[in-house]
Records
---
Amino acid sequence: MNSVISYLIYFLFFLVFTLAPIDIALNIKISGFNLRLGFLAMVILMVLLGTVIAKDIILKKQKLTLPLYLILLLVVAVINLLFVPNSVYIPRGLVYALTLLLFVFLISFSVNTREYISLEKIVDIYVFSFLLHALLGAVQFILFYGFGINFFMPQLGRINGLTYEPSYYVTYLVPGTILITLMALFLNEKRGRMIFYSLTASLMLLVLIFSTSKLGIVESVTVILLAILVGVFLKLFKVLKEVNLKRNVSYFVAFTVFFAAIFYVSGNIGSIVNFLFPGKGEERISYLEKAEKVLASSKETSFDMRLSQFKETLGIALENPLLGKSLGGVAPYRALKNGMNPKNNDDVKQFEGMNIFAEMLAGFGIIGFLLMLGFIILISYDGVRLGIKALASNYRVSIILIGLVLGFLLELFFLMFNQNVLRLYLWNHITLLALAIEKARYEYTSD
């Protein structure tokens, strides 16, 4: 019976991981709110995990335990719920508050189901979900530049997966890219598994670069630099002796060169055809020309607009630092200050705070914000501390923990530029990080 439950949990995790970033398909719109299929799968998963834990508690097989960082997060979620009446548009405040609570429950239930799930299998499912979305981006690129077919690209020539825009797509990819790159370079697994990791990491890295998003280029450079730093760190701890680093690097470089050639040829096939057969490829769109236009548009980016939104959101927080507007109430309050009385969720989308930390300060109030910072610091500290401790006892878990912590911090950083903190894929990553922390705490240390 436990094996059936385990496979069902794995399947639901696969659905949640795979559907999480999808914005422009598989949605149901209700009163201005998008009910995404990935979120629905997450709710089903949470209910299943909760049912399993409740059954085991009743049968006295286990007790529900919450680490300190989850207690902090739960308190933040309750504070946010209490501030919902301060929202100008109550339905949005309530939806956001309940969403945050559901994420807390998902993490809490997940870390209490060690007997039903394997961290290694969950991580491989997570990696596979990123491979699928990286392949989707590659297919979009090749179809458009190679064959002139637009496959779910709102902005022509700019790959976006199934998200709203390229910057959303690359922000989703970045935590997986650093995690899988570290696994590809520094794990010592069987050949087939290492090929799987290297193939996925190199494809994701190139999708970031060829996305035409300036944010993607910054993210790819950041991932490479962090991978080098982690390599130096592991060298100092003398744990690379058992790792076939030469083999791993060879796989990674080979796949990177292979995919780069495919991207370059398909992206510039018009120029290549025109060079070989003058006059035959002039009508094809060139990736290099598209990229040059995007990169040359730096003066036309929305930086000034986002800076203005950040200042305005920060101003709302400073009006009454103790009383927040609730996470979902910040945008409606900004709308009201700009002369609009919001009647539905669509009215306030243009007034979202953009910077997640300013929005959390305005939503949670100073006390809730400090508790949220405490959660971020404590879960990151636990991940690094237990990752270092696990170097000797379980090297694989150690690399996973380090990759998950770096991915978490990178995701928080890049989310500051264009999204909100309730993105499902962020909380998927946090769930996986918490699972790895509790596995290391339970099995590989004396904590």
---
Amino acid sequence: MNELTKQQIDAIVARLAATAQRYPFVRAERLPAIALLTATRMPNWPTEDPLLIGPRQMLWGFALDDLSDDWSVSLNALLARYATLRAVVGGALPPQGDGLAEMLYELVADLHTRPLWPQLADTWRASFSDLLTGMAAERDPIPPASVEEYMAHAHLSIGAMQDSWTLFLLVGDVASLPQLPIITSALRAEARVIRFSNDLNSAERERLEGKQNALTVFASQGYGDGRAATEAALEQALATYRHAIAQVHTRTGRFEQCIDLTVDAAMAFYQHSTFHEFKHREVGA
């Protein structure tokens, strides 16, 4: 990693730090990794995303994941929080004292400033609802019967599709709106790649925590520890993604480029680090 990239990360971290200070549930140790992904896929972020909507949404998504993973919060209480968040996305004011809802409200308000919001709002809201549905499914105590059953929700809960629709709001164009079905297929394929990559990275931690992921599901079907089978599934998912994204043609090509860079960066990142422990100033040139 060169010094220029590290300086870009420093600048983004400094901006995001204000959000972390306002909301104590935001884990500041995640800022460098989020900033790395932002600088990698959008080096012109001061122009393309001056409000840092993309990285702020990622930061919010991790906070949502922390809430969903907190088993001291009952499923009924969690679903009630989800209902509040869906209402905020639909235009309701956040309840006083609900920092997660307040942070989401600010994000949605900034998304309203994007030129494509009127045309893409319903798509973005539906993807947001899918994200919550996917996270709720992770509370199901019954192990999935197959990897495809697991992936039906897991590709949603990873948050990649929500992130990508926000990218489309940032760098997409109105001429590409007729391609939404094709773009949706490409983003589902992207989400599968990132989910499999994430699962390979976090398998041991999640196994110790008693959680399901692609490796545990493959292992339950007799595929050893599940790693080789998951690696093969990742390779197939990547090929499917490459074919799907090649069908997308926006006016400038920036959206497709951002998604490609996101996939490549996420796969490379998950091979050696996590969003909880990455420290860019400790990485060599």
